[in-house]
Amino acid sequence: MSFHFNYSEGPADIRLTGSDLRRVARVAMPSWPKTLAIMTLLLANAGLGLVPPLLIREVIDRAIPQSNRALLCLLVVGMIAAALLGGFLGVLRNYLVTIASQDVMLELRSKMFGRLIQQPLGFFIRTRAGELLARVQSDVDGVHTVVSNTAITLALNSLVVLATLAVIFAVNWQLACVATCILPLFILPARQVGRTTSRLSKRTQEKIADLNAVAQETLSVGGSLLTRLFGLQLAETERFSRRAAEVRDLQVKQRIAGRWFLMWIMMFSSIGPAAIYLVGGLQVISGALTLGTIVAFVSYLAMLYAPVSSLVNAHVDIMKSVACFRRIFEYLDLPLEMAEPTYPVVLERPQGELRFDHVSLRYDAGTDAVKDVSFTAAPGQMIAIVGPSGAGKTSLAYLAARIYDPNEGRVSFDGIDVKEIALTSLSAAVAVVTQDTTLFNATIAENLRYAKREATQDELVQACRLAQIHEVISGLPLGYQTAVGERGYKLSGGEKQRIAIARVILRNPRLLILDEATSALDSNSETLVQQALEQVFVGRTSLVIAHRLSTILRADSILVLDKGRIVQRGKHEELLRSAGLYAHLFHNQFKDVSTASPCGHSSGGEVAQPAVL
């Protein structure tokens, strides 16, 4: 007999290996005290389940034929007591199972989130946010059945099957042989159904991840704005509907595969009792067997076939969840490219010295973003970095903050390789203000306290005064309790930047990195942000990328990058006098300013400000 399920999607080699099974078991099993308590209740439930059929046999074979009313009442009370006690133990067991399974799910989801959040920036650049959400939410939800029910079902039903087999062979070995010869028929379709559902589950989870990615990208503030600007609401709705239809079709196929399997199970479950009635009935007619024994035996068959069916279904459930488990394990096994050092150094009193020694960085494509860069920023110095787009300025900043590690060379902070410094200690000493400010959809106070959880209201106010943003916040109806909206869209660009600067002030870093922090702002916002930054620079080492000319004019040193290399270095005046890249960039920015002097001054004596350097 063969069973065919005509679904050909996906690879055909999805199998539950021994390694998979061991790892799934480690994940799915709760802590040993809870496991011990649950197993004790399982044994009690299994034992109590064997009692009623024996009592039924005594009712039919002894109490009724002998007209023994006392024995009949005693046996009936025993049946009721066994059922009540079994039900109570079942509720208690389910309570413990629910707690244990939810603990396992919490640990699994937390481990996955913790592993993801430690990944380097490049990982998040390569991976869509919707894919990550699908892994943390949908994939973990996809294994909930296995974690919450299947492990306990396997244990309980295995105990019930073994105990029931022992009892039925003790009652009548001939009928037991008839009953057990049906069992292999339960297992035959399970292998094919398991592979089919596993294959479909894998494709379904991939399509759900794709659907989540589309929804997350389109329904974000930026995505919805772009969709509206181009009038593509209908087109995006159709695209989402197509992806949702693919998920629907795959889920329908999963359900149908399960229904065919259930049909076979129900058919085989009816064959066993029929065979027992036939063989046992002939023995009763011949006087070799009592009627009560047949009735008890059929009751035991229900206790045998139902657990066997559940065991086979558990195999199918596990196979269905293999794809989810493997997707989860894939992320849990991600290497930590920037793991905590084995013996982390804690910066007790950071001074802020930054040194690059022949540092090179290349991304996946193999092109050097930074090539053989060396410089030193002494404590309190300001180093400006300029260059054309794609010169490697941001990569240099990210190396300084250890967002990336160099492929060659050494980046040190206070003379210590940044790879040897505790990650939390380094992040406390180094702060970055980027062009694209990130604010969470929370209140202004909560966004500020992201830098210092225990900051008091007075500290928030002081930081915001220094950042030139306190008056704006005070003018809002809810003040510091104002929600900023998704990505801070309720605030202007200049307001977001000044809140980011206030956050940095709360952090009180020794090294401040500004990555084009004002290049996208209007002149008024840029002036306010610049005034705020002047307060932050005092007493700190600063690495300033493509900042205003006034900042570059007062920099202790300017590094000019081109194609990842430092091609010039020096102060503003000496670089401007040389016929190099810096002078070329400067004159290109001022070619439309007729009154600009070579030193960057207008005829009225004010400093002319270039947009980008």
Overview features:
2 domains, 22 helices, Rossmann fold, disordered N terminus, four-stranded antiparallel beta sheet, 61% helix, 10% strand, alpha/beta, ABC transporter transmembrane region fold, 10 strands, disordered C terminus, six-stranded mixed beta sheet, single chain, 613 residues
Q: What is the name of the CATH class of the largest domain?
A: Mainly Alpha
Question: Given the helix and strand composition, which structural class is it?
Answer: alpha/beta
Write out the strand line-up for the largest beta sheet, numbering strands in chain order. Answer: 6-7-8-3-9-10
- Rg (C-alpha, Å): 36 Å
CATH-assigned fold name of the largest domain: ABC transporter transmembrane region fold
Proportion of β residues?
5-15%
Question: How many structural domains does the protein architecture include?
Answer: 2
Coarse morphology? elongated
Average pLDDT score: 78
Number of helices: 22
CATH superfamily of the largest domain: ABC transporter type 1, transmembrane domain
CATH architecture of the largest domain: Up-down Bundle
Helix content: 55-70%
- Give me the count of strands: 10
Major sheet, described briefly?
6 strands, mixed
Oligomer: single chain
Quote the distance from N terminus to C terminus: 77 Å
Query: Residue ranges: pLDDT <50 for 5 or more in a row?
Result: 1-14, 592-613
